[in-house]
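Q: Please design a sequence for this.
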């Protein structure tokens, strides 16, 4: 089916030499980027919009993106586009997360998971945009502090500060109950 989206809306244009692998990258990265964006925005539809905007901007610069740093570049673009989105929409009601459409129709057996997810999205929405970005990149994308600093274009100390403040806020959030404190390995050697 060339050029036909069918009933599922799952149209995938064939990769051409003109897009230099962008289509293949975008199709493979889409689910991960939408999950990350949903944690950043608190809303599934805004997450999809954020990823579409990000990929459109990345496509315009695709040939200049260093091939060894594609994931880093796209994550940084996603975070920066989200920060811009938050700055543009500094309205309190937009910070209140909306349960994604896909979770509105779950069975009663999933009520606890839905409740936990709703509480998590609400707690993340209460964080600053930078704290939310650090928490999502650290605990959902599983990036190191160095990688997060690179994505956010800031120092490792700034990442640690945002992580500490974000964890403190999440632990204190009434909807989350008890969030265990992270355990750190004991130091192996004395500092000089």
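A: Design:
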């Amino acid at each position: 089916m060339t050029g036909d989206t069918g009933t599922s809306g799952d149209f995938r244009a064939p990769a051409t030499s003109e897009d230099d692998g962008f289509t293949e990258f975008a199709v493979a990265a889409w689910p991960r980027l939408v999950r990350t964006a949903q944690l950043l925005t608190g809303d599934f539809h805004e997450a999809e919009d954020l990823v579409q905007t990000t990929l459109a901007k990345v496509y315009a610069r695709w040939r200049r993106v260093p091939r060894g740093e594609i994931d880093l570049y796209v994550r940084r673009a996603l975070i920066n586009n989200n920060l811009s989105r938050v700055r543009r929409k500094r309205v309190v009601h937009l910070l209140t997360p909306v349960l994604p459409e896909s979770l509105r129709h779950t069975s009663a057996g999933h009520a606890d998971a839905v409740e936990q997810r709703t509480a998590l999205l609400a707690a993340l929405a209460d964080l600053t945009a930078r704290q939310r970005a650090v928490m999502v990149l650290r605990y959902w994308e599983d990036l190191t502090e160095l990688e997060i600093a690179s994505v956010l274009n800031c120092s490792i100390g700034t990442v640690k500060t945002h992580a500490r403040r974000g964890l403190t806020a999440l632990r204190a959030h009434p909807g989350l109950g008890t969030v265990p404190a992270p355990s750190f390995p004991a130091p192996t050697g004395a500092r000089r």
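Q: Thanks. Anything notable?
A: The radius of gyration is 19 Å. Residues 1-15, 91-108, 179-192 have pLDDT under 50 and may be disordered.
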